[in-house]
Design goal:
By secondary structure, this protein is of the alpha+beta class. It has 16 helices and 22 strands.
């Protein structure tokens, strides 16, 4: 009997290990004035096989990797330099690290020590990251390889200015990102790129950064232009969509529009409007009167923003969620309202050092405070002007909001790490769309008891998220005139009715988002969404990496 149990456990034991995973890579790149760099990566992984972790860094050309330091739990591994021997056992490599020379670069190697979860920190020193060119200085470097043992679920790369000179700005530092879905910006004097969904094994993280002359004194120079490197990197990328379209002119444009219209018309006619991978179906026809997802506004934003099979207005829900947060602050008393010169203007009165439990809301509030200036009274034209100057903040904020919502859904088990809905999550996430249906047809409540008035705040906040707040407020007034009149009086802000309030907060958000989008479109290389394609001609990186 004991022998049988032992054999059974022997076969079942491997199943208890989780799958090979790279949950997170947080990469910090400190760049010195001579172009050298220190690249620190915090790894969060699960290993299920192999004896060592390795990362190929090839295509180095005149660049050099000079050292590798690895630590775990605050303990630094023994550094074997360029004498690493991959032929040893798991135990022999434990808490040891080293480098292997290759024809075009090196391999970074360290012992895994044991199977299971690990949080390592690797520190790589290299020369020649920023190189001097005939027109600009810069680089096109692959920081995360394609075809690693598992696609990283999240990657963030922060490139930090350690030159001793002025901080980088979008005026002197241009940025592009390739190989993943996410964003790249110049923020607070640093370049920040981040994925907004799990990477596939075929993805990579390649960043191209251009600096004006005089910001660096590069040790490595070459007799070629950044413009030539940029042209190579952009081949096959979404950055070249407009220029590629010009070649074929109206033929591609006309065919594309026709195909899109036919597809959209068919989807609307049949009701197949939603993404099956998220909801388990393309049709959602019911309604739900309860606020969905435990009242988590950003989770609802993630769902509704991800729900569509096509995108006619990419900024729609970005504007809506920002307006919903503004309205939430007003109804919660975090801001007050003053009328402007006319009833079509609104001014938000803020407070310094306002505490928030939610860092995403706090980030937006701090932007509003900065835009408002000393008097802490935010007017639409001030926010619009500020958004034009700081458009990277406005464009990055929705990614933070989506990320907050995604984390909630992952924690609840409603989506998996590939952003697909689960059996557990199909129902709760469909309720987001069903709640939207309920708000769109508020007259259905005439058949039932009047909803508790304290829920009307939530109804209006979510109606703002869905872009139907004006319709819902009018329907509330029509269906329940006495109750709505009292509710409006209780929530009157310096002469603004509830209906006018919902309209005006949306306009405040819309002005900011449009100003940011317009400015971003005017300036090439100043940040925004990454391109999944392109990135050719890069230095660094390679193919593969992980356990072996």
């Amino acid at each position: 009997m004991k022998r049988t149990v032992f054999i059974l456990l022997t076969f079942l034991f491997p199943l208890t290990l989780s799958a090979q995973e790279i949950r997170d890579m947080d990469i910090r790149v400190e760049v010195a004035q001579n172009g050298s760099a220190t690249v620190t990566t915090d790894w969060d992984v699960t290993v299920t096989s192999g004896t060592e972790w390795y990362i190929p860094v090839g295509n180095l050309g005149p660049m050099k990797v000079t050292s590798l330091k690895v630590s775990e739990d605050g303990k630094t591994f023994v550094d074997e330099g360029f004498n690493w021997d991959s032929g040893r056992s798991l135990e022999q490599k434990k808490r040891r690290s080293g480098l292997v020379r290759k024809t075009d670069g090196v391999e970074l190697c360290w012992g895994q020590g044991s199977l299971g979860d690990h949080k390592w920190r690797s520190v790589v020193k290299m020369t020649g990251l920023v190189q001097g060119m005939t027109d600009f200085d810069g680089f096109n470097f692959q920081f995360v390889n394609t075809q690693m043992v598992a696609g990283p679920q999240h990657v963030k790369v922060t490139i930090v200015n350690k030159t001793g000179g002025p901080e980088w700005t979008s005026a002197d530092t241009k940025v592009w990102a390739f190989g993943f879905k996410g964003s790249i910006y110049v923020i607070d004097g640093a370049v920040v790129a981040e994925t907004n969904r799990p990477m596939k094994k075929s993805n990579h993280v390649t960043l191209m950064v251009r600096f004006d002359k005089g910001m660096f004194a590069p040790e490595v120079t070459k007799n070629s232009s950044f413009a030539a490197m940029e042209k190579t990197a952009k081949k096959g990328s979404s950055y070249n969509i407009l220029s590629d379209t010009k070649a074929w002119g109206p033929y591609l444009l006309g065919a594309g529009i026709l195909a899109l219209l036919i597809w959209i018309l068919g989807a609307f006619t049949t009701g197949n409007k939603y993404r099956k991978k998220l909801f388990g179906t393309r049709k959602i026809e019911g309604w739900c009167r309860d606020v969905p997802l435990d009242g988590n506004l950003f989770a609802a934003y993630y769902v509704v923003d991800s729900s569509r099979r096509f995108y006619l207005d990419g900024n729609k829900y970005t504007r809506n969620v920002m307006g919903a947060v503004f309205l939430k602050w007003m109804l919660e008393g975090k801001v007050s309202i003053r009328p402007g010169r006319t009833k079509k203007r609104i001014r938000m009165v803020l407070q310094e050092n306002r505490a928030f439990d939610n860092p995403v809301e706090e980030e937006l509030y701090e932007m509003c405070v900065d835009a408002a200036g000393r008097d802490l009274i935010l007017e639409p034209r001030e926010f619009k002007r500020w958004s034009r100057r700081h458009y990277t903040y406005i464009q990055n904020w929705p990614y933070q909001a989506r990320g907050k919502g995604r984390s909630f859904l992952l924690r609840k088990g409603f989506i998996d790490k590939r952003d697909r809905g689960t059996e557990k999550g199909f129902g709760p996430m469909k309720e987001v769309i069903e709640f939207k249906h309920f708000l769109e047809d508020f007259t259905i409540l005439n058949q039932r008891a009047i909803p508790e008035v304290h829920l009307w705040n939530q109804y209006l906040i979510y109606a703002t998220l869905f872009g139907i707040a004006d319709k819902v407020s009018r329907q509330m007034q029509k269906s329940y005139p006495v109750d709505f009149a009292k509710y409006s009086q209780d929530h009157l802000f310096e002469g603004f009715s509830v209906a006018a309030l919902t309209f005006l907060v949306q306009k405040l958000a819309e002005a900011a988002v449009r100003a940011a989008s317009t400015q971003a479109a005017r300036e090439s290389g100043e940040g925004g969404s990454s391109s999944v394609g392109g990135g050719g001609g890069h230095s660094g990186g390679g193919v593969g990496g992980g356990s072996r």
